[in-house]
What we know:
Elements: H1 2-24, E1 26-39, E2 44-55, E3 60-75, E4 78-92, E5 95-111, E6 116-129, E7 132-145, E8 147-149, E9 152-165, E10 170-183, E11 188-199, E12 206-217
Parallel strand pairs: 1-12
Antiparallel strand pairs: 1-2, 2-3, 3-4, 4-5, 5-6, 6-7, 7-9, 8-9, 9-10, 10-11, 11-12
Amino acid sequence: MKNFLLLMLLLTAARVRTVAQDQDNDDVQLWPDVSVTIRLNSTAALNVFGTMRFGQDVGARITHQAGAAVNFSVNDYLSIVPAYRHIWSYPTPTRRSQENRYFVDVTPRFPLPKGFTLLDRNRGEVRDISDQVSWRYRNRLQIEKALSWYEHELTPYFASEFHYESRYHAWNRKMMWVGMRVPVSKHVTLDVHYAHTWDARARPGYWHLIGIMTRMEF
């Protein structure tokens, strides 16, 4: 009987420790973004953007970012976007870093039946993180459809994204997104979304992301 009670006590302690570890490996984050696009001509647009990201269950600011890009529309079915982003990160009081990120997006668009559209964004990044240079490939597949609701055009979408990181020689991160773009006025659109992230190399490795992007176009 004593051995049985001791075994149950050990199992209970192990379970409590596992639950605590799982809780430490989860985070809820808020990503408010602002993007301003200025049309240069019929095929090119300048885009500047900035964001702050709040983590630790939305209790602390963990990064802020700023950057610029030029969007080239090759035709109705292909866009190419070279871009730069600078990132200041401070996930904990003792961990701080800065990153210069240079990247190019190549995104073909495929019209599908029933008014759906498939986008296949391919992003190659060169990352200089505190003088350590690496590269990353990100592939995001997104399916969307424009809908009319009381004379407003809403665009719900679902996306999945996978990251290959040269530092680890592995596909270390995957993300699932569900969201909707909602026009507020002629020049302003809100992109509201939820994403779930799994990252085998990060701590915490499971993120619940709530994103609110304000897009302004002129």
